[in-house]
């Protein structure tokens, strides 16, 4: 059996693992990265990027349909059609460009990439089985676990046939006539909305009483209203029981125990993701765990010396930018730098229509933490830029300490607000106060003016409302 020795061995080439490897390479650390599939992980191959591409294509198609119905803008267009096969090809092209780019960056930084499935033998030894079946043993000083996550399955309705996960939903051969989505979280609503815009009849079944139950009701209200306008049916407070006997529908029980069957040609199950912590020898290390997630400290150290873990494998929030930040930090710690993972806030964006952004504390979070805060909303209905892009739904909300006006959180819902997450995150990390944001000149006309106006409103003197 061939043997390789290295300083750092990374298992998994997703955003966590590939960023750790690139940074380690930059710092001169001898690094091997083992990836069973294509570099880029869930995010680039079957997650963030392909979902945003499909969402964009669906939005453009929907816009074309809207113009065919006549529009206040005076635009007239014929009825559009869509070739979903070509849409998927276009999406695959973007994925290919990005994953090839990651491969090139790893090479540029002298990272040895081994394509194969890693099996952990002990905290310093991993066996890799390549595509050709050949075994390779890798010895390391530091082992970084970045194996990510996988979709949770409903035991009574496993994936297969008409029951699909986000992976299959991102590469459809066609648009189903009737799609049932289980779960009104990130994936269910992002992809449910896209499929509706592509022409499917969509019903979303959610166990909780609200869509996006992780966010507060005020924030998700414009999303619920938009789903209704789009014709997405919501079955809230309902649980799925399984496929019906004929296999052409989903049995659903509502909060009153009433059972119905929803006719379906495809069922997208999006009830969460679970850390990929089994099936490759990780159990043998007997690390301290939080359920299925590997337990880490604020430097991403596990309970075993020189074994590190990052990203989705370590549990919520399962977000690509968190995984990347952790990966970069671990490489720097191994190189001898003093680093800790203590962000003041990690932005979360849901790419529904309208989009939702959450950074830091909501008023409810602050209340639960016993903090005395002021909060204020500024509606896009009072923002000129929002009017010019025909999108006045939603608002920006700021949360700040009452005593010194330190900003603790931002929330926003509206078209294009994902791009405001940068300003929100920076203001919190830099320790900005309401006065700092209110006193910054914001370009006109921009959606960003709602950020300044929310701060002004919290201070009691908004100008445009
Ligand atoms: P992953 O990206 O899951 O990568 C892990 C890698 O490890 C995989 O490539 C896997 O093949 C490899 N691997 C696992 N075990 C082994 C082994 N034994 N040997 C070799 N290789 C192995 N997050 C956002 O921030 N924004 C978004 O818009 C967003 N959209 C998403 C949309 C969808 C549909 C999905 C499913 C997820 C989305 N996410 C989004 C979440 C994001 O994809 C993850 O948080 C992110 O990919 C986690 O990175 P990671 O490096 O921890 O793991
Ligand atoms: P999620 O946790 O966002 O939502 C799952 C939803 O399913 C919840 O609302 C939950 O109440 C509901 N649910 C659970 N069991 C159910 C059942 N039996 N019947 C009906 N409803 C049920 O999970 P997800 O949408 O699968 O996404 C997984 C993870 O992927 C997210 O937590 C997120 O970290 C990541 N992701 C992020 C983005 C983004 O950042 N834009 C996009 C997609 C995915």
UniProtKB/TrEMBL annotation:
<dbReference type="Pfam" id="PF07992">
    <property type="entry name" value="Pyr_redox_2"/>
</dbReference>
<keyword id="KW-0560">Oxidoreductase</keyword>
<dbReference type="InterPro" id="IPR050151">
    <property type="entry name" value="Class-I_Pyr_Nuc-Dis_Oxidored"/>
</dbReference>
<keyword id="KW-0676">Redox-active center</keyword>
<keyword id="KW-0520">NAD</keyword>
<dbReference type="Pfam" id="PF02852">
    <property type="entry name" value="Pyr_redox_dim"/>
</dbReference>
<protein>
    <recommendedName>
        <fullName>Dihydrolipoyl dehydrogenase</fullName>
        <ecNumber>1.8.1.4</ecNumber>
    </recommendedName>
</protein>
<keyword id="KW-1015">Disulfide bond</keyword>
<feature type="domain" description="FAD/NAD(P)-binding">
    <location>
        <begin position="8"/>
        <end position="327"/>
    </location>
</feature>
<dbReference type="InterPro" id="IPR004099">
    <property type="entry name" value="Pyr_nucl-diS_OxRdtase_dimer"/>
</dbReference>
<keyword id="KW-0285">Flavoprotein</keyword>
<keyword id="KW-0274">FAD</keyword>
<dbReference type="GO" id="GO:0004148">
    <property type="term" value="F:dihydrolipoyl dehydrogenase (NADH) activity"/>
</dbReference>
<comment type="similarity">
    <text>Belongs to the class-I pyridine nucleotide-disulfide oxidoreductase family.</text>
</comment>
<dbReference type="InterPro" id="IPR016156">
    <property type="entry name" value="FAD/NAD-linked_Rdtase_dimer_sf"/>
</dbReference>
<dbReference type="InterPro" id="IPR023753">
    <property type="entry name" value="FAD/NAD-binding_dom"/>
</dbReference>
<dbReference type="InterPro" id="IPR012999">
    <property type="entry name" value="Pyr_OxRdtase_I_AS"/>
</dbReference>
<dbReference type="InterPro" id="IPR001100">
    <property type="entry name" value="Pyr_nuc-diS_OxRdtase"/>
</dbReference>
<feature type="domain" description="Pyridine nucleotide-disulphide oxidoreductase dimerisation">
    <location>
        <begin position="346"/>
        <end position="455"/>
    </location>
</feature>
<dbReference type="InterPro" id="IPR036188">
    <property type="entry name" value="FAD/NAD-bd_sf"/>
</dbReference>
<dbReference type="InterPro" id="IPR006258">
    <property type="entry name" value="Lipoamide_DH"/>
</dbReference>
